[in-house]
Amino acid sequence: MALDRRAFLRAGALGTLAGGALLAGCSRQAAPPSPTTMTAAETEIDLGGVVVQTWAWDGQVPGKEIRLTRGQSLQRTLVNNLPEPSSIHWHGLAVPNPMDGVPVLTQKAVPPGETFDYHFDVSQSGTYWAHPHYGSQLDRGLYAPLIIEDPGDGGDYDDELVVVLDDWLDGTGTNPDKVLEDLRKNGMKMDPGGPGVSPTTPMGTDGGDVTYPYFLINGRVPADPQVARYRPGQRVRLRIINAGGDTTFRVGVPGTVLSVTHTDGYPVVPVQTGSVLLGMGERADAVITVPDTSVPLVAAAYGKDGYAQLNLRVGDAGPTGANADAAAFATALAGQVPLDTATLVPTEAVTLPAREPDRVLDLELTGPVDGYNWLINGRAYDPSAPGLPVSRGQRVRVRYVSKSMMFHPMHLHGHTFQVVGADGPRARKDTVLVAPMATVAVDLDADNPGKWITHCHNEYHLESGMATYLEYTG
What separation in angstroms does the CA of 312 have from each of 23, 227, 294, 404, 454? Predict the structure, then answer.
């Protein structure tokens, strides 16, 4: 069946639709080889009737998909044609430390007009992505999906669809640097009612610090969404990536069950749900069965006004009232109890062996402090200060302890961790949502020496200090 499926895809049974909405129902279609260079430059991008000046890799948003098979080598050269330094971070992959793309800590930022070669073997499979780690560049158009195939995948689905979510403001009269400058000068609007955590608002009532005019799926606004064509009954694996700078999304398809099979690249015991919650930097894989009629896939911005959509077209008929359906469903999603992928159970094959931690690191998350400063253990990030010491071979428990009235998606480089559940191990991940005034503990095996940053994946919190790093000392 896997061979038949791949043969079908190579035959190009899916095509390009009229009206500028490119069908990308499966990323496995025959395509030109990915370039070995990734050129970062200023460019003009059409987001579906909204034309903006922004920064992007190779002139497109998202950047060209990188797709490899586990065990292959990734080799890319960053060509920096931007007016400032840049880098590439391979989000979620346990790469060698010099390849991690964090300026000062792991490499020198790549100056304008210069290049840097990234090369490493890929030992993991799953859904990952790439983005810069310099200034507020992440909240422009510099990001790309990175898919590592498992040769054994494909027996339980017919097709794949990569879904990249984003919040967008660059080139709309402002840019991320100006927004960050304003936040530092004027601070943020505070919610006087407290965190407001409930089953339908598990991350509280504060959706973020930045107001975005647009939300995107695969680089397109809802007014002119991407369209993917399928047959009724097809089983489609969605690879969903939240590349947003300040927005968590609730993702679902009207009248359709999502069977969530992976989070942050790692398999879990499948769970069926009507919607999944994804913080910035998180990913989820879910299999859906295509319904008999066309429907939108909707990503509703958590705690904010607006949504992104992608249309799933069944047969030749276009979705009747798709935009109205999407708007209504986005409103309905706000009243649902979404699935937090951190609560999922890992499959036996990826569960860490039971072991008491050798070291426990408490990271207290606070902010905003003295204006717009976001701190860990009372300090802003300083790569020249000593890191948090760990030794190779240790089982390390990191406790993210929020003293903040806002949620934080906390990401760790160079490792995956296992979320600690009250009654047993939870999902293997590299990014985890920490609710307001809550504590999330994660376990990791210290098996990748180097200096590894852990930080909030809200771009504006990171740039305002919410980061520290683990340092191998033995």
Answer: 10, 6, 6, 39, 37
210: which 2 tokens? 């930045």
Regarding predicted confidence, which is higher, 153 or 219?
A: 219
Query: How far is residue 126's CA from residue 301's CA, in Å, rounded to a whole number?
Result: 25
Q: What order of strands is seen across the sheet that includes strand 258-263?
A: 214-217, 159-168, 235-242, 283-289, 258-263, 266-273
Total residues found in the chain within this entry:
474
Query: Is the bond into 368 cis (omega within 30 degrees of 0)?
Result: yes
Helices marked H in 216-256: none
> What is the enclosing helix (H) or strand (E) of 328?
helix 322-333
Please report the pLDDT score of residue 194 as a whole number: 66
d(CA 468, CA 317): 52
Residue the block writes with tokens 């006087």: 192
DSSP 7-43: HHHHTT-S-PPSTT----S-TTS--PPPPSEEEEEEE
Is-above-0.90 flag for pTM? yes
Cα gap 301→308, rounded to integer Å:
8
